[in-house]
Structure formats: C-alpha cells, structure tokens
Amino acid sequence: VLAVLVFLLIEPGIKENGKTSSSIEIARNEVTTLKELQLVYEQALAEDPDASLKQQIAQVDKRMVRLQENFAAQLADLILPRQMPALIEQVFSQADGLKLIEMASVSPENIFADNPAMAEVPLYQHGVTLTFEGRYFAVRDFLARLEQLSDKLYWRSMAYHVKEYPTAEVTLQVYTLSTEKAFIGVE
Asked: Residue 20: which of 9, 32, 12, 31 has the closest Cα?
C-alpha cells in the first residue's frame, strides 16, 4: 500500500520537479546567453559606427586646406591683369631695336569653365597679343627676357615672319593666370 501511495502521489511530484529543474537550467542558459549578447550589443553601441568615415573626412579636409594654401601661395606669385601692361612696357623698354606695332588684350577665360566640378574656382586666363618688328637678335633678346618671367607669364603662340630682310614681324600671344576676371588694361 505504501508503495502504491508513493507511486501514485510522490512519483509524479518527483518527475515534475525533474522537469522543472531541467526548465530552470535551460532558462539559466538562455539568461546567460542573453546577458552575453547584451554585452556585445552594448559594446557595439558604445563604438561610433562612423568613426572610420569621420577619420577619412578629417584627412580629406586637412589635405584640402593644404591644397588651398598651396594654391593661394602660387596665385600670389602671378601677375595681376592690371600689372600686365606695365610688365610688357618694362620688358619692351629694355628691348633695343624693336618697334611695338600693336598690343591687344584677349578676353579673360575661366580655365575651369568646361569642368562642372571646378567651375566655381575663380581662375582666369588673361591674354595679350603683341605684334612687333625688329631684327632677329633683338627679337631673340626680347624673348629671352620674357622667358625669365616664365613663372609668371606663359606663352600661347608665336609667329615669326621675315617682312623684309633683316626685319621680321613677330606676333606673340602670352597670358597670365589670376583670380580676377577683369580685362587687362591700363590704370
């Protein structure tokens, strides 16, 4: 009788207790897994997901500042459009045996006009077409003086035509770069 009583009353409780212990162990494992997962998520949230992108942006910004400083330094060495006539006059005043026939200014052009990404950069090409005549050696000496200004003055084209020996007519187009859009003129 006692065995039947134990079998009928106590055994189901023992089995139920075993199932509950097993469920508790499974729940503890799930809680441990969830705590580990929570720790991983908290660490991920503590890190800035844009940190590498922000670092790249900072590097690009620094490079852009250096390029702008370099650009500004190079522009400081250029001849301004309003200085061009005086420079040409100075070089011609040192040129013996040359006669200036014509000096014409060429419309300024934004050198980045065809590049939409750079169109807002204010860099203009200012040209002057000079027509003069003289003997070969006088022309050569004049061109050599202009060459000495090569960091400020650029050559576009030159036509040398012997008019009547030994005199030649030279058409020379030179230009400078500037951030000013104004035409080359006399002050």
From this structure: 12
